[in-house]
Amino acid sequence: MGGGGQLTEPGEPGEPGSRRAGGGVYTWEEVQSHCSRNDQWLVINRKVYNITQWAKRHPGGFRVISHYAGEDATEAFTAFHPDLKFAQKFLKPLLIGELAATEPSQDRNKNAAIIRDFHILRDRAESEGLFQARPLFFCLHLGHILLLEALAWLIIWLWGTSWTLTFLCSIMLAIAQSQAGWLQHDFGHLSVFKKSSWNHMLHKFVIGHLKGASANWWNHRHFQHHAKPNIFSKDPDVNMLHIFVVGATQPVEYGIKKIKYMPYHHQHQYFLLVGPPLLIPVYFHIQIIRTMISRHDWVDLAWSMSYYLRYLCCYVPLYGLLGSVALISFVRFLESHWFVWVTQMNHLPMDIDHEKHHDWLTMQLQATCNIEKSLFNDWFSGHLNFQIEHHLFPTMPRHNYHLVAPLVHALCKKHGIPYQVKTMWQGLVDVIRSLKNSGDLWLDAYLHK
């Protein structure tokens, strides 16, 4: 689960002593009892698999697959793997049985009708070629990133390091970094090439050599977000490190327990000082370096260092070492603002809560919303203004989101699932409004409950 990482041969069978012939018959109650860190089963297409040992070797990281322990993972498995036949080879040694004939195919709160209709929609999208990428689109996107980087350096080399030209250079580099962020996102989701290995190779190049980050760090973090969006303890993007309280549940829980790490009723104000300016240049930067070193991920570290070596070779002769560090820090500062506002306006104002075990469509629609389509919005957000479609079909090339969107909207309307589309301005304002609402809930619970 989760398309990140590379693997070429099936792994070893699951837990020693498990029924490897796959002859067991189980109830949902039995499957759901195997959801601890050292004992994990899951169900895919009514087949029961023991993933306890495999989770540690899972290419997308052990956390993303562990989030589905004790559950039906069919929809997530289909969503994350563009080549299902290849992925199923790794499942065969893990098979321990199947669900009893008397058991439903869906567990807990999952709606069978919604699951069936969504499966039909996905089949239609595949038959209409909406999972086929246009190579020219991504070549042009990469080309405009490289052009911006070259022009940013060239104007300084030709005309000097004045404040005006330095500011212009910073803007161009920030645009290039942000657009490279959207491009690495495409490769990371295996949505560009049919061969996963090509996606992995270009992902490491873009996120490593063009951005100085780690592909494996991004994979293991981002796929958790897609697997369980806006779900506490499972989506790392809503782990606010006690700096913010989000949603409607967490603020009340903190307030009742009299937890006050920060003055949360003012979080909509200090968010502007802490969130957008510091996420990438401080928090992500530290986390990436620590992750690569602690996991001995020397390949990603080499790719990351190649970016900084190239940058320093280009700019130290022009600005000196301290000037070059100041320049890249300012670029990261600008990029961080761009990234935070684009990513948070689709998720932060939506439902954020504990696990509810909904079906794929319902879970994703409760956690995501769209921003109106326009040429600027598409470019500015890397087509993540179609966040709903991206979450439903993470391996679909982004230039096809607008084609599948009407089908998704119709399906949501049929089943009474809210499908939210906002203006860019409304999306940005809702980020602040949601933080204020959560802060007010915390203050009320803190003082009166």
Quick description:
The chain is mainly alpha-helical and 449 residues long.
Report what the structure shows.
The chain is mainly α. 58% of the residues lie in helices and 5% in strands. It has helices at 28-32, 62-66, 74-80, 84-89, 112-127, 135-159, 163-188, 196-209, 215-227, 250-256, 267-294, 298-344, 360-367, 375-381, 387-392, 401-415, 424-448, and strands at residues 24-26, 35-36, 39-44, 47-50, 95-99, 370-371, 421-422. The chain has a 5-stranded mixed sheet. A hairpin with a 2-residue loop joins strand 3 and strand 4 (47-50). It is globular, with a radius of gyration of 23 Å.
Question: Into which percent range does the helicity of residues fall?
Answer: 55-70%
User: Which of globular, elongated, flat, extended, rod-shaped describes the shape?
Assistant: globular
Mean pLDDT across every amino acid position: 94
Q: Would you tell me the structural class of the helices and strands?
A: mainly alpha
Task: Give the strand order, joined by hyphens, for the main sheet.
Answer: 1-5-4-3-2
Amount of beta strand: 5-15%
Largest β sheet strand count, sense and barrel closure:
5 strands, mixed
Radius of gyration, Cα only, in angstroms?
Answer: 23 Å
- Low-confidence segments, ≥5 residues, pLDDT <50? 7-20
